[in-house]
Amino acid sequence: MKVLQIGLGPIGMAISRLLMRKPGWEIVAAVDTDVVKQGRDLGDVIGLESPVGLDICSEIPPLDPDDVDLAFLTTVSTFTEVLPTLHTLARGGIHVIASTEELFYPHHRYPQQTQELDTIAKQHGASILGTGINPGFVMDTLALLLTGVCQDVARIAVTRVVNAAGRRPSLQKQIGVGMSPEAFAQAVEQQRVGLVGPTDSLAFLADVLKWKMDGFKERLVPVLTHKPLQAAHGQIESGQVCGVRHLIKGISNGKEVISFDLRVYLGAEQTRDTIYIEGTPTLESTLKSPDLEDVAAAGLLVNMGPLVYQARPGLLTMIDLPLPHYQR
Ligand SMILES: NC(=O)c1ccc[n+]([C@@H]2O[C@H](COP(=O)([O-])OP(=O)(O)OC[C@H]3O[C@@H](n4cnc5c(N)ncnc54)[C@H](OP(=O)(O)O)[C@@H]3O)[C@@H](O)[C@H]2O)c1
Questions:
Q1: Is the CB of 7 under 6 A from ligand 1?
Q2: pLDDT in tens, 259-307
Q3: Which domains can be identified in the chain, with CATH numbers?
Q4: Among 71, 164, 211, 231, which residue is least crowded by beta carbons within 10 Å?
Q5: 294 in ligand 1 pocket by Cβ < 6 Å?
């Protein structure tokens, strides 16, 4: 499978490293807007011992659909920001898997642009998927899969506890690490902090389960550290924000039917994902892994590669594809 890699931050690098050691994959071009990476050998940038003979470009090179089978787009979180790139790739007939959170389920937030992108992708035979771990897997695809054994489902609740220590600088920034409580409150008002995607997971679940929602309530609570902690950009002090608790409730017919409790902060203990489904039968499943984050995101995106390549054209969601599974 011939790959175009766009974006070489921690996720793009993890994907590239994985592809380099998997048989049957070849990176034919790599692009990044960071001038520090441009012109350097891909192997050097992703931390391999020897060069791979591929220089990182500043923009997508002219490519024939025969030159490339699939693009991994791992750049930014917002749908509108990746839209021009998606239009270019779709018009070139290139299939895409993106880690863009808002591309996981853009239908409710950007209905018109979603429809337009879907039409262009279909016209040019390109399949496009936005996925990841959160959104993309734990709070939506996996929760939905578990409902597969239920006769009735009354409520879904997901609790996710993530230790943000040692994680991507971009994630630590998103959760307000190092801010004062006052600066955090202001950033919440200006929508500059908080995790991107939980409301998209909620909309996805509601739509697939055909739950008509009255709306949702969202609340961001800062988690403050009581001791100095090491963050990606240096040390933070006692009393500063070390992460966030992001609470979301989805209401249908006046009842809470979906709730997400996401706790992402430096030093979080007992990291886990618990999916609780109230129904017939009621069931609860807990996943424990220190790596159900970026390592897993790279794994999922790559494992979805062959599935997206073989899928029908259009803008797809995880429900349109076969079950994600490990691919050798
Ligand atoms: N759904 C999930 O579970 C999940 C998991 C992990 C990551 N993500 C998301 O995936 C994205 C990538 O993650 P990351 O941590 O690797 O991000 P990152 O650290 O911000 O790195 C992104 C890289 O892409 C480059 N870039 C930005 N716009 C570009 C463009 N138009 N063309 C080419 N390169 C471009 C950036 O360059 P500059 O530095 O010059 O901007 C940077 O080098 C983020 O939005 C992240 O939130 C989602």
A1: yes
A2: 999 999 999 998 999 999 999 999 999 999 877 788 999 999 999 999 9
A3: 2-133+295-320 (3.40.50.720), 138-289 (no CATH)
A4: 211
A5: yes
